[in-house]
Amino acid sequence: MDELKILVWIVIGIVYLFARKRKKDAEAAQPKRRPVESDYETETPPVSKPVTFEDLLREIEGSKKAQRLPEPVPEYVEEEKTDWKPYDYEEEVVEKKKPIEDTNYDYRKHDKIYETYENATKYAFVKPSLEETMKLEDTVVRFNQFKNYQPEPKSRIREEILRDLKDPRSFKKAFILSEILQKRF
């Protein structure tokens, strides 16, 4: 069946090639002719819409306007020079604006942070350290203190089922489980 389809397509392709070649030969046999001016004249002129009275009136008025004299060319007259002098803004002295923020502000002179820091470092050397203050006798040691907070182990259903299936004495449970797990539909 597949071979028959292939043969049909091959035959269709060959017929198409022959038809195309015959068409090319027919075009080549006809001499190409140049268009003659008379060919252009025989074309139909574009259809124009009927002329209305308003269009005729506009055309007549337009021909009257065309007969008028051309507009005179404007002559440029040189203006008189005045005594005023242009104002030069660069010569004007502008006061410098004062900055909003004081850039020469020294925090050490005005803030007490640095003074507090220096006092704390001096006091730290005088104060006893943690090792000196802590004694081993003072610590309370209690074992299993947090045992109540540990999570209870979760019951593993899967492990119970496997244990029951392996045990030959629990045949009843195994039979019930097999009935539950069987696919009926």
Descriptive notes:
The chain is mainly α and 185 residues long. It is flat.
| Mass-distribution shape | flat
Poorly predicted regions are: none
Helix/sheet category: mainly alpha
Report the count of strand segments. 0
User: Hey, roughly how much beta strand do the residues contain?
Assistant: under 5%
* Largest sheet geometry: none
The secondary-structure element order is HHHHHHHH
The helix content is 40-55%
Through-space gap between termini? 42 Å
Q: Radius of gyration, rounded?
A: 57 Å
What's the helix count? Answer: 8
Q: Round the mean pLDDT to the nearest integer and report it.
A: 79
Quick recap:
This protein is an all-alpha fold.
Strand-helix topology:
Layout: H1 2-29, H2 37-41, H3 53-66, H4 107-110, H5 113-126, H6 130-133, H7 157-166, H8 171-181
Q: Which keywords apply here?
A:
185 residues; mainly alpha; 8 helices
